[in-house]
Amino acid sequence: MSELCTLTVDSLENVIHLSGKLTFASVTDILEKTDSVFDSFSEINIDLTDVTRGDSAGLALLVHWLRQARNSDKKITFNNIPSNMVAIADVSGLKELLPI
Question: Which helix (H) or strand (E) holds 62?
Fold first, then answer.
């Protein structure tokens, strides 16, 4: 079975740690799990250090979170975005939007 993305929430540090594959197969599940977390944080830090693979769906999730944070007047940062996701963001013109 393929490794899907999992998340761990550090409420003291306002950090959402992601690990595994952030791909089309996992983004819906991750999105559902983070909705309530976003409501409870005033500042959100997404740590992607342990993400082993990401695709355009994973990038779309980051853009969705960015929009969700901005609509709620919350600060969001993305740490350690995998290089292949940064490359997709660069080619698609989204790199400048991401608070890296």
Answer: helix 56-71
